[in-house]
Every structure is written in structure tokens, then in C-alpha cells.
């Protein structure tokens, strides 16, 4: 497929769409979630990311339906193992971490590779997270990219079926927004840009 011409891209409002990206807090996401067809379109868009060496260093785990509550209870049990004196408010937060009607765990598949550094492969998985956020918004849903302690806890990773060479790049929470996400201050990219010049 040929690369679209500059005017065609702008005509599609691509930059306007990118500049309108906003995260909707997971606790503000409710049903309906994307159906199977919409999710398939979203995932198809999400995998079109830079992938040095064509390693496909990521996969997806869907957390939906009753699995959300079961995972929440597992998080509470694990939180109490980690801290038997955990406050009730902390436990309730863990119980409701997967409040949104759908969460997709983006799993980075790492391990030894003679050619492609692990950091590049993990970066590719992070690109998938961002692309999935954009795809959700394109389908009319709200989404938020979260991690939190469950993304780094070995017991929870095993519970989710991750292998020893896998890591969570992000939990992408998806649903219908209860309210429009407000805009927030953004950094001025001009203040972040420098020019390199040879000395």
C-alpha cells in the first residue's frame, strides 16, 4: 500500500486525532466494552508498531467478565501476604483495580536474543500499549494505560500465565466513558528540543 500524500493525511484529521488523545480514568469507564469485532480491529491496529527484527515481542491477555472480580480478590489476597496490616482502603483499591469492563494486559516477551536488545523489544511492547489506546479512542471508547504493583509482582504474573521471560508492559483498561476526560496542561515541545551540532 502506498504511503498517503501529506494532504491526504491532514485531510483525514490524523494530527487532530493525535492531539485529541486523552486518558479516561479506569474508574470512570463502564459498559459497554468493545465487542469481539471491535476488539479485533483495535488489536490489528495495535500490532502495527515498530518491531526491530520482526520478533513480535508481545502478546495479549484479556481480562473481562467475572475474571475481573476474581483477579481483584486475588490481588487482595496477595496484598495481605505482602502486608498483613494493609489498610482496608488499600485493599478495596486492589479489589477494584479492574473495574473497567475490559482490560488487556500487554505482555512483553523478552529473554535472550543475540541481535535485538531487550530494551528495544520492551519498547516495542510499549508502542503496542500506546497504539491500543489510540485504537480504543478511534472506536469511540475511553482507555487508560496503567501498571501498579500487580505488574511487577511475580506471584501475580504467574497467576496471569506469564513465563519467566515475560513482563507486563501495561494494563490497558477500556470501556465507555462516564464523562468527557478534561484536557490537562501539556509540555511545550519547543522547550524540549535541542539541536546537536558537531564540536
Which tags fit this structure?
199 residues; 5-stranded antiparallel beta sheet; 8 helices; alpha+beta; NADH Oxidase; 5 strands; single chain
Structural overview:
It is a single chain. The chain has a domain at 25-65 and 99-177: NADH Oxidase (3-Layer(aba) Sandwich), CATH 3.40.109.10. The longest helix has 21 residues, at 118-138. With 199 residues, the protein is an alpha+beta fold. Strands 1, 2, 3, 4 and 5 form a five-stranded antiparallel beta sheet that branches. Helix 3 (36-46) packs across helix 6 (118-138) and helix 4 (66-82) packs antiparallel against helix 5. It has eight helices and five strands; from the N terminus they run ααβαβααβαβαβα. It is globular and about 55 Å long.
Oligomer: single chain
Instruction: Give the helix/strand class.
Output: alpha+beta
* CATH class category of the domain at 25-65 and 99-177: Alpha Beta
Radius of gyration equals 19 Å
Q: Count the E strands.
A: 5
Order of helices and strands: HHEHEHHEHEHEH
Sum up the overall morphology in one term: globular
- How much helix, percentage-wise, in residues? 25-40%
Q: Summarize the biggest pleated sheet.
A: 5 strands, antiparallel
Give the strand content: 15-25%
Q: Determine the number of helices (DSSP H or I, runs of at least 4 residues).
A: 8
- Named at the architecture level, the CATH assignment of the domain at 25-65 and 99-177 is 3-Layer(aba) Sandwich
The overall pLDDT, averaged over residues, is 94
CATH homologous superfamily assignment of the domain at 25-65 and 99-177: NADH Oxidase
CATH topology of the domain at 25-65 and 99-177: NADH Oxidase
Stretches where pLDDT is under 50 for at least 5 consecutive residues are: none
Cα distance, first to last residue?
A: 42 Å
Amino acid at each position: 500500500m502506498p504511503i498517503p500524500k501529506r494532504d491526504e493525511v491532514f485531510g483525514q484529521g490524523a494530527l487532530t486525532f493525535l492531539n485529541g488523545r486523552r486518558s479516561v480514568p479506569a474508574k470512570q469507564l463502564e459498559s459497554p466494552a468493545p465487542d469481539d469485532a471491535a476488539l479485533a480491529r483495535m488489536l490489528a491496529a495495535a500490532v502495527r508498531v515498530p518491531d526491530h527484527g520482526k520478533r513480535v515481542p508481545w502478546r495479549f491477555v484479556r481480562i473481562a467478565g467475572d475474571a475481573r472480580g476474581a483477579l481483584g480478590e486475588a490481588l487482595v489476597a496477595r496484598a495481605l501476604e505482602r502486608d498483613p496490616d494493609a489498610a482496608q482502603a488499600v485493599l478495596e483499591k486492589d479489589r477494584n483495580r479492574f473495574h473497567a469492563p475490559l482490560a488487556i494486559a500487554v505482555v512483553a516477551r523478552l529473554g535472550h536474543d543475540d541481535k535485538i536488545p531487550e530494551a528495544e523489544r520492551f519498547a516495542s511492547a510499549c508502542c503496542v500499549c500506546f497504539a491500543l489506546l489510540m485504537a480504543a479512542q478511534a472506536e469511540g471508547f475511553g482507555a487508560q494505560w496503567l501498571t501498579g504493583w500487580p505488574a511487577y509482582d511475580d506471584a501475580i504474573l504467574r497467576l496471569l500465565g506469564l513465563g519467566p521471560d515475560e513482563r507486563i508492559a501495561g494494563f490497558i483498561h477500556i470501556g465507555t466513558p462516564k464523562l468527557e476526560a478534561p484536557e490537562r496542561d501539556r509540555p511545550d515541545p519547543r522547550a524540549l528540543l535541542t539541536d546537536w551540532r558537531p564540536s
